[in-house]
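A student in our group prepared the protein record below, which I am reviewing. Here is the record exactly as it was handed to me.
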Amino acid sequence: MSGVARGMFWASAAAIVWTHAGYPVAAAALARLRPRPVRQEDTTPSVSLVVAAHNEKAAIRARIENALALDYPAEQLEIVVASDASDDGTDAIVEEVAAREPHVRLIRCPRGGKLAAINHAHGQTGGEILAFSDATTRWEPDALRKLVRNFADPDVGYVTGKLLWDAGDGASQEGAYWRYEAWLRANESRFGSITGGIGPIYAVRRTDFVPQPYGQDAALPALMAQRGRRAICDPEAVAHEVPAPSMEAEYSRKVRMFAWAWYQLLRGAPTRGVGPLYRIEWFSHRVLRYSSGILHAGLLLSSVALARRDRSARIALAAQVAWFTLAAAGRLRAPVPAASFAYYYLLVTWATVAGLVRYARTGVPRVWAPAEGTR
């Protein structure tokens, strides 16, 4: 029994360290040692910018105005709002703007969730490039040009940008997480392809787009790799979002996201037919990250089992107890350094497990209501 516990201890510890620290460092080193530059040109092909929306009355006007203000030739850009059966007045606002802006259009979709709205809308647009965003997102004026310039490289089929979180009430740690993710994805881009996109800002060639039964953020980059294409991140293409008002609200969003992540991982065969390097990327950045809650549980249980006779297990157990204590301080909003981040990490880690349980019990949540405080 001790042999099983010891194996679980070292395997869990190694996997946690690798996915959060070892792999990012390795990716940064590979980006420097074996760079694969992307050819960029300031071209302006026709673009269809699709914004999926359900009951976004409070945000949709600002989103359209932000899209209209993009530094991109108006005659080359159509702005399409795919309304997922909105019944709060969202459609009326879009139609009002469309009456005076010929490049704005409303597509009404039956209620089916964001993914269904995207799949429904793409066939009713005509741009060479399909760009996607959320109703609450704000793009920098040059964001679309920065995305599109990468399609001058014939190997590139998908481009995502960088997401910044506007100031909330100080409770959310999403900003720190996304800065880390942007750095990691930029390094993956420099030597090959990314393993996941960013829903509020991405673009894909029409010829490379395939309607997905799984979430677009991970499915399309994996599809590019399967086709021998590249999916990259351009960190100069910047979008802004408003964070959830609290980490507890963000936790609910993460559980939904991880349910979709497990769905794709277990049903989608994302690494079928890809090369060995991309398999390593996917395993390191996706499989181990999605499994982090399970890995932490394994580390805790094995540390307890081995603590009496193994010094390494005692040190690991003490570190975990300290982490739980710091997270509890964060939960209580105590002014303790790093407490807020420890609590955020605990919630996100547990959300990976809760997402798996939700997927096993009820499948994926195809429709949902916006989080309070983000509108």
